[in-house]
Amino acid sequence: MAFRAVHAKWGTVFAHLPDLGCEQSWDAVWKVRPPAPIACAECRHPMHAKTSRSGLRFFAHAPHAPDCEVARQGESEAHHLLKLELASAARDAGAHAEMEVRAPDGSWRADVLATDPGGGWTMALEAQLSPITAADITTRTVRMREHGVTSCWFSDRPRPPWLGTVPSIRLAADADRGLTVVEGLVRFTGSGWQIPARASLTDFLCWVFAGKVLPHAPRTTLRYPLRQLPQVWTAPQYVTAEDAHLAEAEKRQRLQQERQAACREKWEKELAQKRARNAESRARAIAKATIVEKRARQPHRRAGPGLHDELMERADVQRAVTFLASDAYNIPVTAGWSSSEGHWAGGVPLIRTDEGVPTAVLDPEPGQLSHDAFRLLAGLLLLFSTKARKERFERNTRRRRKVPIDGWQTDFMTDPPARALVPYGAKAHRRRKPEECTCPQPQLVAKISRAEYPAEPAEEMGPAAGLYTAVCRTCGGPYERPWRRVLAKGPEPEKAERGGNVMSQSSHPGDQSG
């Protein structure tokens, strides 16, 4: 279909206009004899005036027409009707509208070319119903702009994929007002874009021609149900409102960042002060513990040497000494003589052998963290025999809210061999039966009536060996070979034989003679 032709006397005629654009009627060219002298504006081949079944008027090439672009790129009836609507609305908006206008160099052709009667502007109104890519429609828009012609693309399809790529509008039919703008025209309210009340096509073109609306790339999200378009039409005051909103949002964000920075600086300052105070209190606690350790090592102290020797015979203490002397720490330590003091939280203090200063604590108990113990242990390495004990200590102190600001400095030794299961005297659930002691120099102890008594290997079983079991402190296993109790220094208690059993009249029964 073609809707524009050239009459030999009247010039360009348009099939969609009631007066053909030259104050002539349609009957002057339709079904007249001889045929009206009209020809194609492109190839100058003769044309005939025709009407479709729906009453649409158009021009068609006569037979044997050449390869004409108009004939080759015929347009649909819907496309032509939309062009008619655009041209009619442009004229109603006060512009001069002409259909099918080609560029001087033939690089583009506008569906409707609207011009200002005063010569101030020129705009192409493009009806686009067929599929087109965003790249192609952008190229055509740029080509027009190079000739000083702005453009606006129109479609009445539900969701044209190219909408917003270039200045564009989606239209829909309204029973009362004809074609109305339903997408592409927005206004800014509060903090986002939203669609205004529907505007007619004529009103929209009036605003466009008067400069009251213009294309704009929104920087704020379009509110639902609008889809996010890279380019919309809006009024200049709404662009200013968006700029003011973004400036205010940026100001609020900057103030919030400044407040956060001030709070962070204040918090870091307070944290530094707390760390300084904690460092002083920890230094005092370590100094006090050092003094207590030195006092425990004085010659007149009786319990210190024996307690130290007993601790150094324990397998876990020996492992701790070896662990700290390894390449991981390279610290020579020994068990502390002041292990009975309460500021170690039930753990074993490990003292540097060269300086006599507390360095670490082995297996402290979270339930015994008093104020003095908390300050002291917060500045030392907490060493645990197993990973499970370390996790238990951290979990319980966290639950009781007894954790230093920077956390505990903890570490654990590798798990002991399979045969060294549970140390003697430690509580454990579902522990396996330890293997028999095979140590070359066992350190024996006999548990009699909930009390422990020293013992030693013997050539023959003593009386107590028949009733009780000796356990080796080194490996934790039972000693199945002959053993006897070691007598304590002091007067020999009297013996009494009752019911065939040898019992001591002292508070602890057992073999007194060995």
Care to describe what's here?
- With 514 residues, the chain is of the alpha+beta class.
- The chain has helices at residues 69-72, 77-92, 134-145, 201-210, 236-296, 303-312, 315-325, 371-377, 387-399; strands spanning 4-7, 11-14, 38-39, 47-51, 57-61, 96-102, 109-115, 122-127, 150-155, 168-174, 178-183, 187-189, 192-194, 199-200, 214-216, 232-234, 333-335, 348-352, 358-362, 381-384, 410-412, 444-448, 451-457, 470-472, 478-479, 483-485, 495-498, 501-504.
- It has a seven-stranded mixed sheet. A five-stranded mixed sheet has the order 17-18-19-20-21.
- β1 (4-7) and β2 (11-14) form a beta hairpin.
- The N and C termini lie far apart (128 Å).
Main attributes?
alpha+beta; 514 residues; disordered C terminus; seven-stranded mixed sheet; 24% strand; 28% helix; five-stranded mixed sheet
**Helix and strand composition category:** alpha+beta
* Helix percent band: 25-40%
What share of the residues does DSSP label as strand, in percent?
Answer: 15-25%
Largest sheet, described in full? 7 strands, mixed
Mean pLDDT: 84
Q: End-to-end span in angstroms?
A: 128 Å
Number of strands: 28
Which strand order spans the largest sheet, edge to edge or round the barrel?
6-7-8-9-10-11-14
Low-confidence stretches: 417-422, 426-431, 490-514
Alpha carbon gyration radius: 51 Å
